[in-house]
Design a protein that fits this description.
Radius of gyration: 19 Å
Number of domains: 1
Shape: globular
Structural class: mainly alpha
Length: 267
């Protein structure tokens, strides 16, 4: 789209989220870009699993409920705002920086991880590390029923998926960023309401939307596979296969969670 025909508001948004030099000229260089080394991602995930297990077994940390409540409110606000920024930034990059929709879904083979689309994918990767705070808040609040295998598996593996997506210049990764961030705006708004004492009656809807996200992601990946095997060789396919396997497992686990927590209660 011709940027000269945009309204002043869109021009400002593009200057902030796409055309800023730090975004426009971003480049992922393994070992040089912060948090880009294999050692970093390995240590991060192992530390997360180790600390989670230690805290869940011993409960050595205790925070006064009023303070914990304030921390939880701030944490949810941060993730709502951050998710909204990432969704807007990546969406604008897809429409105004990528040459066409085919490019967004199927990066050319051996494309370098640089530019606005990869910048927002990088921010998304870092945000998933920050989301480890979710687990810490669950443990210190002693809400151990929420510390399920699904929760820990999801938080640990999504960071690996994002790292591999950057490392391999994975095709269609920006679509994952936009859909996941849009869902997280809604999800963390629900958690924010719970934290301030206004527990909504639409908890099931949050899970339904998450499941819909995984279904749409799976359909998107089938489209990428079609492009890849019909002549348009797409970049980062081994990372793409890891993401596809991860999304399938999440879809199965979330459907099982839905069945146990909502369908069983309805019966």
């Amino acid at each position: 789209m011709n940027q000269t025909t945009l309204t002043p508001m869109f021009s400002v948004l593009l200057d902030w989220f796409v055309n800023d030099p730090k975004i426009l000229h971003f480049s992922w260089i393994e070992g040089q870009t912060p948090a880009s080394s294999p050692q970093f991602i390995s240590l991060t995930v192992v530390s997360y699993l180790s600390v989670t297990y230690f805290l869940s077994q011993n409960h050595p940390i205790s925070i006064a409920p009023p303070i914990l409540r304030r921390i939880t409110i701030v944490h949810n606000l941060i993730l709502i705002i951050l998710s909204l920024i990432m969704a807007v930034g990546c969406l604008l990059s897809m429409f105004f920086h990528a040459p066409n929709l085919h490019y967004v879904l199927c990066y050319p083979e051996n494309v370098e991880p640089k530019g606005p689309l990869f910048f927002w994918a990088y921010v998304f990767y870092l945000s998933k590390i920050y989301e480890y705070v979710d687990t810490f808040l669950i443990v210190v609040s002693k809400s151990m029923k929420r510390l399920s295998f699904l929760h820990v598996y999801h938080h640990a593996t999504v960071v690996i998926m994002c790292y591999i997506g950057m490392h391999t210049s994975q095709s269609s990764f920006s679509v994952v960023v936009v859909t996941n961030c849009a869902v997280h705006v809604f999800m963390y708004y629900y958690y924010l309401l719970c934290a301030i004492g206004k527990r909504p009656n639409w908890k099931r809807l949050v899970t339904d939307i998450q499941i819909s996200q995984f279904v749409l992601s799976f359909i998107d990946m089938l489209i990428v596979l079609f492009f890849h095997f019909t002549g348009s060789t797409c970049s980062g396919m081994w990372g793409f296969c890891f993401s596809m396997a991860f999304i399938i497992t999440l879809l199965v686990l979330f459907i099982d969670f839905h069945s146990k927590n909502y369908d069983a209660k309805k019966k």
